[in-house]
Amino acid sequence: MTRFLCALATATLVVASAAAQPAVLPERARPDAVNAALRDRLDNLLPQLMRESGIDMWVVINREYAEDPVYLTLVPEPVFAARRTTMLVFFDRGAEKGVERLTVNRYPFGEYYQAAWEGGDLDAQWKRLGEVIRERDPKKIAIDTSRNWPFADGLTHALHERLMEVLDAPLRSRVTSAERLVVRWLETRTALELQAYPHIVSISRAVIAEAFSNKIITPGVTTTADVAWYIRQRYADRGLPIWFMPSVNIQRPGFRCESATAFCGQEGTIQRGDVLHTDVGITYLRLNTDTQEMAYVLKVGETDVPDYLKRALATGNRWQDILTSNFVTGRTGNEILAATRAASKQENIDATIYTHPLGFFGHAAGPTIGMWDNQGPTAVLGDWKLSPSTAYAIEGNVKVALPEWNGQLVQIKLEQSAIFDGKTVHYLAGRQTEWHVVK
Q1: Which of 45, 156, 204, 207 is the one with CA 20 to 30 A from 56?
Q2: Is 260 exposed, middle or buried (0-12, 13-18, 19+ CB in 10 A)?
């Protein structure tokens, strides 16, 4: 069993509270799991992606307080920031010798990188970087500059100028954008990561189930803000950072939800008969979740969710099925969006689609499949092609007219984390097919 799996296995020994919740690793055990996955990515995935991208040298340079977005995905824990000026150099020596990983830094990274320079003089550091590049004579020198992808645009203007100063004219002519390599590195999930990802998503979903229950909600007393802050505190108590503030909102008869409205729902005190929605996302072992689920607060005398709301949720699930059935390797995000919208329209489903990649970031690198404020093609990001072993937040909503609400629309807002294996989309920890119920 690898160190990664051993570290994860110890999580079963951790008891976070008396409530039944998926276990999490103590802080001290997390670096072993993260670093085992990092070593696997550096050893096995990076060479494959560099060759796929036609890049034989990749140079990542950043400074403390201005970290490159990709930087923390390349270095071992516990690392929280770049130290002074930090330089990473990856050079592909071919299939037999593999990718050389070098640092030109004041602070090296041990076994993960070979130190090509260790010192304190900034001018000497830049000079040595120029020598390292010149000695290897790469065909292409990929750097993190991109007009369209923020993830691949981490090299600051001043650092770019300094790099050009230490390269002679022939080498400067070989400098190119690492855009494709960065996106592929960020969007690809490895087998090791996929062993942990379902557990990570289950942690997120379990807290939602707890929050949408009588343990937390007292109708007529508890507010949406109370529930949102409970969710945030619950994650914080378990050492799980959130990457956006959890939201909770209410729909009920009289809270109008027109077709032209982007999002339906208001904040306030939760009452019986309310439809509730939440949107939450956590980061654990460097992987992110993004989850939206729905709840219903029973009226006095009710013992179950009304059938008309069950049908509305089923419509949302049908929309998810239409979307995921259109995931085909090599299709662009725009093509998946167009096909899903057309099929939804055929079935009279009023759907809005804003599905996005998931991984090291919550809104991650890869094909954009619609945006909440743009249901047409998205330039560049929507033109990116779907690849296997990539993760997504299957996100969107459907609006359903309810005769029981005098024709008012209810908006079923759903989002679940999933993996595309090249043929099929699999939900990492299931999806919501039944309402959470507050009794």
Answers
A1: 156
A2: exposed
Per-residue pLDDT for 315 more than 50? yes
In this structure, which topology does domain 26-185 adopt according to CATH?
A: Creatine Amidinohydrolase; Chain A, domain 1 (3.40.350)
**Mean of pLDDT values over 196-203:** 97
Confidence of residue 196 (pLDDT cuts 50, 70, 90): very high
The distance in angstroms from the start CA to the end CA of the chain is 45
Element containing residue 124 per DSSP (H, E): helix 122-136
Establish whether domains 26-185 and 189-438 are of one fold. no
Whether the bond into 403 is cis, omega within 30 of 0 = no
- Whole-structure pTM value: 0.92
Average pLDDT for residues 118-143, to the nearest whole number?
96
CATH class in words for 189-438? alpha beta
d(CA 209, CA 211): 6
DSSP state of 438: E
Contacts of 86 (CB under 8 A, 6+ apart): 61, 62, 63, 64, 71, 103, 105, 107
- Sketch the domain layout of the chain as residue ranges: 26-185, 189-438
- Residue given tokens 């404020």 in the structure block: 373
pLDDT, the chain, mean = 94
